[in-house]
Amino acid sequence: MERMQGEGEVDHLERPSPLTDKDKVNIQDSWAKVYQNCDDVGVAILIRLFVSYPSSKQYFSKFKNMTELEELEKSAQLRNHARRVMNSINTLVENLENPDKLASVLKLLGKAHALRHKVEPVYFKFLSGVILEVLAEEYSDVMTAEVAGAWTKLLATIYTSITTTYKEVGWTTLSSSTG
Ligand code: HEM
């Protein structure tokens, strides 16, 4: 069953605080391990999103009607998006010291998802929660409370930046005008 919107577990994503130097090192070190299994982890994250929040499949023309897990796992569109998500996160992690680059990558992402793919911003919040969940499960040795805290901050920054871009491109007007 679809999880409820606005669950407490992801509420903290709305209150980002700046990354400390220690946070940056924690993110980079843990990501280096995760990124070694880029394809598998990316697919695991997206599958978890689509299983926990089935309505998130609506945006993907090729698998929006798929319900079988095995079928979903094989979808080229799912695997491509998994790779794109992982590569984008990799770019962000590589540029933690470069706020201008971070801002421009996030702005492009926000624009593409708002204007081209028309994804409701709440799905970015769901995806952030799912990323934290899957990393905690699959990399429990690496994801100490401190490391998880650093990731929570980064994901909160991503979410805030995406929602800011959505507002800039007029998403509020768009959704209220279409009911
Ligand atoms: C951290 C979060 C995310 C990242 C980094 C990300 C990244 C990307 C990238 C790089 C692309 C391809 C470039 C483009 O079209 O501009 C893309 C396409 C797309 N994204 Fe995302 N995405 C994220 C979250 C989401 C979410 C939450 C959804 C919907 C539930 C979504 C739906 C889509 C769709 C439908 C496409 C087009 C797919 C296609 O053409 O096959 N994305 N995403």
Automatic annotation (TrEMBL):
Membrane-spanning segments: none
Alphabetical list of InterPro entries matching this protein: Globin, Globin-like_sf, Globin/Proto, Globin_lamprey/hagfish
MF terms in GO: heme binding; iron ion binding; oxygen binding; oxygen carrier activity; superoxide dismutase activity
Keyword set, alphabetical order: Heme, Iron, Metal-binding, Oxygen transport, Transport
Residue ranges of domain Globin in the record: 18-167
Residue stretches in coiled coil: none
Region: Disordered, residue numbers: 1-21
Protein name as it appears in the record: superoxide dismutase
